[in-house]
Design goal:
Oligomer: single chain
Strand order of the largest sheet: 6-7-8-3-9-10
CATH architecture of the largest domain: 3-Layer(aba) Sandwich
Distance between the termini: 35 Å
Number of domains: 2
Radius of gyration: 25 Å
CATH class of the largest domain: Alpha Beta
Helix content: 10-25%
Strand content: 25-35%
Order of helices and strands: EEEHEEEHHHEHEHEEHHEEEEEEEEEEE
Number of strands: 21
Number of helices: 8
Shape: elongated
């Protein structure tokens, strides 16, 4: 096993910049997740680490070794793609052993590793089957077993669960986390699914347009997003963003007023415009309301209900909507009046131009 360090990695394609000045270090044995919208550069980073792409500039280290000029086959990394790429003419056992065989491992070592992987992944009963006889989840386990069996220094996963249905994906995600705890290989995982990122990662790297937006522990990023992009990307449903104007003691929003927290007022100036952020779970239905809204859509989810509401706006003004999480006992329908109170201690302010967080500070 080994750490992975990226120091100023940039990758350009003709006039397009895929990733720019990517710098972070994954400590030995940790599980890091690269997450962001499609086209943000996360797979390019993974392929660069694997040696399938070459950095235009910057340095890449695996352990203490600079690997910029080291070919992929000599980097001692294993990669699992969205397409599991199992050999259809080989059995499960032969697929798992393939990497070991290519590296010259003896037959006894191959057999021991195959049996160990099969036991850990609970696929012992599948060892004599061919890939076409397996379900999607079973094929995914075989691909993981093949990658891990040769005990690489680094394990790279590029959206390996995206082909699975929702229920199977949830179960396999838990198994993958347990597998990492057992084998302890330094792992870098790419996904666009924020739930996977939050549940799997020791650290998350959030990317947009080829640049790092924030790095940190999942819960820390959720509670303290660095900017509007991170705030709205991490969280399901996402953080509500409201365009407001500070009036001296409150925030004005389409004729309604949201009180300004006392800890914030002295640092603001009347007439300033902000993007005010509030998460759906920090809004409650209350007659002592900050906002009067109208119900648009009601989505019962079992243990909670998600309600989308809209604010009254002038005829030509853009429609302003919010997501609100409420108890399933609350009965409302489209068109109902819904008074809402915001947890003023959970407000965020973002610069409407740059998107950077202004409040809370620190």
């Amino acid at each position: 096993m080994a750490s992975v360090q990226l120091d100023g990695i940039t990758r350009r394609f003709s006039q397009a910049v895929a990733i720019e000045d990517i710098t972070f270090e994954v400590p030995d044995g940790q599980f890091w997740v690269l997450v962001g919208p499609s086209g943000c550069g996360k797979s390019t980073i993974l392929r660069t680490i694997a040696g399938l792409e070459s950095a235009t500039s910057g340095n890449l280290y695996i352990g203490e070794v600079l690997v910029n000029q080291v070919p992929a086959r000599q980097r001692d990394v294993a990669m699992v793609f969205q397409n599991y790429a199992l050999y259809p003419n080989m059995t499960v056992a032969e697929n798992i052993a393939f990497g070991l065989k290519m590296r010259g491992a003896d037959t006894k070592t191959q057999q021991e590793r195959v049996e160990t992987m099969a036991r850990i992944l609970d696929i012992t009963h599948l060892l004599n089957r061919k890939p076409r006889q397996l379900s999607g989840g079973q094929q995914q386990r075989v691909a993981l077993g093949r990658a891990i069996a040769r005990q690489p220094q680094v394990f790279l996963l590029d959206e390996p669960l995206s082909n699975l249905d929702a229920q199977l994906r949830d179960g396999t995600r838990s198994e993958l986390k347990q597998l990492h705890q057992q084998v302890g290989i330094t792992t870098i995982y790419v996904t666009h699914d924020q739930v996977e990122a939050m549940t799997l990662a020791d650290r998350i790297v959030i990317l947009e347009r080829g640049k790092i937006q924030q790095i940190g522990e999942p819960q820390s990023i959720y509670a303290h997003p660095a900017n509007r992009m991170v705030a709205t990307f991490l969280g399901n449903p996402p953080m509500n963003i409201l365009p407001v104007t500070y009036t001296g003691d409150s925030f004005h929003l389409e004729g309604q007023k949201i009180p300004c927290p006392s800890t914030l007022g002295d640092s603001l100036h009347a007439g300033q415009h902000f993007d005010l952020g509030i998460r759906p779970e920090h809004i409650r239905v209350s007659e002592d309301a900050h906002l009067i809204t109208e119900v648009s859509v009601v989505e019962p989810l079992g243990r909670e209900t998600l309600i989308r509401v809209k604010l009254p706006t002038e005829e030509r003004s853009p429609q302003i909507t919010l997501n609100v999480q409420v108890s399933p006992d609350l009965r409302v329908i489209s068109g109902d009046r819904l008074p809402l109170s915001l947890d003023l201690d959970r407000l965020f302010l973002f610069d409407p131009t740059t998107g950077q967080r202004i409040y809370p500070t620190g």
